[in-house]
Design brief:
The chain is an alpha/beta fold. It is built from 17 helices and 20 strands. Helix 1 runs parallel beside helix 2 and helix 7 crosses helix 11.
Length: about 450
């Protein structure tokens, strides 16, 4: 018997397609919970490769072939059933999908961005696409959806959200990836049974920070369509010699994006390149810091990771990688090309310097992280708002820059280095190592949830 598989929101279309082929599984439907902002979903590619129709909930109006389902409509996958539950609020087309077994028992809820573990979807993103919506209006719709559609469901249903901790689509998400609906009713601040609509709107909208600037652009790509991943890979997988890479950089105005580990980058890199490591929160930081999704990009990667990097860029809409440095940075160095370095010091070295003279310290973590605990006299210059943070920096002064673990600080220093700020030094391993060293005067820890 042929196996059948449904897919709820895919952002890894090629990997999913290949895995289905290996396991002799037919992908029957591609269910989209809404028009996503954080990633290009991969839904069109997957539908083209498999013939599976794309399913949206009510209010969706995609510019490509798709089935817009009715609230309550059901789809059969083998003996199981998927029921459409329209839950506007995060966006107006937001939809959850309820999984029922062959006996009709409700088993799981694919909740998209309507309900997370510990949180609910932020209600301020759709207004960036549709001007007549406000975040308070969307929050009100979300309250109604949760109280009339989701909370009445059985407590033993397993909730499978679209995101976990670290996503910009919510503000208080848990690191846990699943939970029972019953436990969420007890622990999720937004599902309190005694909460009024007005209280919900206030709590859900308090503490929201500006979303990444690429979010509205990704939404439009998910609505209107995008280049196929095959075309993107073909365009990006041009192996360039050091001479050809240098010529391309000079002739095109492409951003040179170095995706190696921060400390490897610090030891040597191509002048004016920026570092966003592939092993961290790569795609969201690219989206936040490279404002034009049509920006041409030249890559420096660890050898063998070129396709992965190009694919991960495409997932957030950056389809215009035009080539990569063959042989990586080692080939550049062996060719005798000009290279740059960034000073990176340990917390102990920084403490020794501070014992002898005043030192300027920049903490590039989010403001909420900074407020919870920081080095006394450090200045907060969040990477999230690097253009505003740059205005705080005097080019004639030397600064020591840290984040939580060393990932964001190298991004910050590399971007400013490319803009002519040459007196910024990195602090290895960030605030975690600073705190563990015991050599710094820190403010008293404040639980971040009290800051919301």
């Amino acid at each position: 018997m042929e196996k059948q598989l449904l897919l709820i929101r895919c952002v890894k279309c090629c990997l999913t397609f290949k895995k289905a082929e290996r396991n002799n599984v037919k992908i029957k439907y591609v269910f989209e919970t809404h028009f996503h902002a954080d990633f290009v979903s991969g839904h069109i590619d997957l539908s083209h490769k498999t013939g599976a129709p794309i399913i949206y909930g009510p209010n969706a109006s995609p510019a490509f072939e798709a089935l817009v389902a009715e609230d309550g409509q059901e789809f059969k996958i083998g003996k199981a059933t998927i029921k459409v539950i329209h839950t506007p609020g995060h966006t107006m087309e937001s939809t959850c999908y309820l999984l029922k077994d062959e006996k009709g028992k409700e088993i799981g809820l694919f909740s998209g961005d309507t309900l997370f573990i510990g949180d609910v979807g932020r209600p301020d993103l759709a207004q960036k696409v549709k001007a007549d919506l406000t975040q308070d209006m969307l929050a009100g719709y979300l309250f109604d959806s949760l109280h009339t559609k989701i909370m009445p469901l059985s407590d033993d249903i397993i909730v499978y959200p679209a995101h976990g901790a670290g996503s910009a689509c919510g503000k208080n998400m848990s690191k846990e990836t699943t939970d029972t609906l019953g436990n969420q009713k007890k622990t999720n601040y937004a599902l309190r049974a005694d909460m009024t609509r007005e209280e919900f709107i206030k709590e859900v909208t308090t503490g929201l920070v500006a979303p990444p600037s690429y979010f509205p652009l990704n939404v439009m790509m998910n609505i209107q369509g995008y280049d196929s991943i095959d075309k993107v890979l073909q365009r990006g997988q041009h192996a360039l010699s050091p001479d050809a890479f240098e010529a391309a950089a000079n002739e095109t105005g492409a951003v040179i994006l170095d995706t190696r580990d921060a400390q490897f980058f610090a030891q040597g890199f191509i002048p004016n390149s920026i570092n966003i490591g592939i092993k961290g929160q790569f795609a969201p930081w690219v989206g936040a810091l490279i404002p034009d999704i049509k920006q041409e990009i030249l890559l420096v990667t660890e050898e063998g990771l070129e396709e992965e990097v190009i694919t991960r860029l495409a997932r957030v809409g950056y389809d215009f990688t035009i080539g990569f440095l063959k042989g990586g940075f080692n080939a550049w160095k062996e060719a005798g090309k000009e290279a740059d370095q960034i000073v990176s010091v340990s917390p102990e070295e920084l403490a020794e310097k501070m014992s002898k003279e005043p030192v300027n310290i920049l903490d590039v973590r989010k403001n909420s992280e900074f407020q919870s605990e920081h080095i006394i006299d450090a200045e907060n210059a969040p990477l999230d708002f690097i253009n505003d943070s740059m205005a705080k920096i005097d080019k004639n002064k030397t600064y020591y820059v840290h984040c939580a673990g060393g990932y964001r600080s190298m991004i910050f220093v590399s971007i400013l280095r490319a803009r002519g700020y040459s007196n910024l030094n990195d602090v290895k391993a960030g605030f975690k190592a600073i705190k563990e060293s015991g050599k710094f005067n820190l403010t008293e820890y404040v639980c971040p949830t009290t800051l919301l």
